[in-house]
Amino acid sequence: MSLPPVDPAVTAEAVAALPARLRKRLDEAVTQARGWPVETAGDRVTVRPDDQVYVVLTVPVTDPADAVCSCLLAPRCLHRTAVLSAAPIRAGGDDPPAPTDDPASDSDPARTGTAPPDQPQPGGPEVSAAQADAAQGLWVVAATILANGIAGAGAVAQADLLRAVHQARATGLHGPAAAAIRVVEHLRAGRRAEPAFRLADLADDLRELLAACHRLAAGDGTVAGVARRDYEPVGDLRLYGLFCEPIRAATGHAGAVTYLADPTGRLWVVSDVKPSDRAATGSATRASVDLGEVRLSHHALSRAGLRAINAHASTVGRLSHGRARQAVAAPGAGWFDPPLDALWQPSLAEQVDRWLAGTVLPAHARPAAHDLAFLDGTVLGTDRRGLLLTLDRPDAAPPLTVVVSAPHEDPALPYVTNLRVLGIHATGRRIRLVGRFTGPRQVDGLAFSARWLQAGATGDTAHGGNTGHGGHGGHVDLGATPLTRADVAETVRARGNFLSPGATFHTVAGRPVLDPTPSPAPAAPPLHLLRHQVERVASAGRSALLSGVDADARRLADAHLGTASAVLTGLAAAGVRRTRDVFGRLDPHDADRLARAWLTAAVYEQAATRATTRQAWSAPAPEAPPP
């Protein structure tokens, strides 16, 4: 079934017009609607619930008149409403782009989305009365959805949130509106039990939505966001290829992305990610780049460079491509040569701060490569978690060992095989790595280079590709190019390639030697207990708080996380508290109290996790945040 996107206001109006007796059957009808036959002819999409009834959608579906049903009850019929509720949500021209797996570039939070929750800006724009009302409407519906959980967030509840989205858009609250749409999409995916559904994403977007509404109610207009912007001129660019990676998104998109850097160190992105029924493989990077006169694959462009005249790019750094753009291929640069060498000069602390600062931004506003790690280190071996890399520490600090994992474990992508080859056959050798931060002392390996990389290896170096540092055009894209033993020939192999977690080493003659008795890994603070309860409430609503919370609160208190224990205890109290009015009806303010307690716990968990993660990257052992 392939339905066109529908404007949120159209869906909300259709559900509101539905008689009460039919609303009770709407969720069942939506499930059936996903199996109804769909025919497309030009700008008209016809859905046939049965032999006598058909629903016609005129693309784009932005007005109630664009959805017509042939039954006698139309437009207040179940067929039309079920089709509209089953269709994707139209993002609209005034909302920020939906989050993708594509990278983004440097951006100003005040220009491209909402500001970080922990960086209020009192001097920002004032909140109008209409915006305050719209934010209150979003809060009330989101609080109700949170109290009822996924099971209780059917088509009617989703339509209520879409109606609030329409009001928010009309008043200029583009950031909260975009977050609310993502919440609806997660709810739909969760109710359909789609493999792409991630409860963590639903919890994060609910937190973003409620936090934005809370700040708007307090008069902070910096979270309103701005309307979606098209590509804008950025002048002439001289770019150097850095690396490329195959993309496989949970949303069904696949393709390849190439990262490039300009002489100032700013990163830019050439993206070719499209809806696809086939999973991405390493060959996706061999597809041609559609950018002006550039006749290179993503693989070759990441080893070459380009000159762009009057280039256009989005505010998040994604280059506009197409034959209409003026761009030609140019020589590239090696990772050990300027200007790319400068990417590895910032300290580890600066890189971690850049990553953590980006995580608090909405997905569409995160700077490009905010989560990329540029690391120099020595290969120690492998363990069950992945490749072990000890980092160069010019500040004479204690050695820091990082786990390099595979972003995808699918055999169609050579990530796992390449990391295994490095761990077994390159032990004791120094490499230069580009990874993606994923957690405390953990990164996903994306590409690497080394001065010892064998010059005889095969690489795609046509059209200006760089060959100045060995084979593979100067570096190896771990998700695209399989490594062999010949690529790492004459490498010193050491015993103990497969290490247990927490293995330590000392240095002899400039090379790492494993200690015979590895010390145990230090225990991290049990913040996962709080995160687990936050996600449980997002999934099951207040019923998740009926049991199991007191034990987790005690464990947090025993770990000297007093604030974490307090916010979890407050969340449990708000969840079980049910009051009634003089007529015996449940008080709707209970949902508001639960939402505030949940938001308090979610925001604390996010901040505490960032603090412990930063500590893990800067000290030999992670420490608990202050209680």
UniProtKB/TrEMBL annotation:
Region of interest (Disordered), ranges: 88-130
The protein depicted here goes by the name SWIM-type domain-containing protein
Which organism is this entry from?
A: Actinoplanes awajinensis subsp. mycoplanecinus
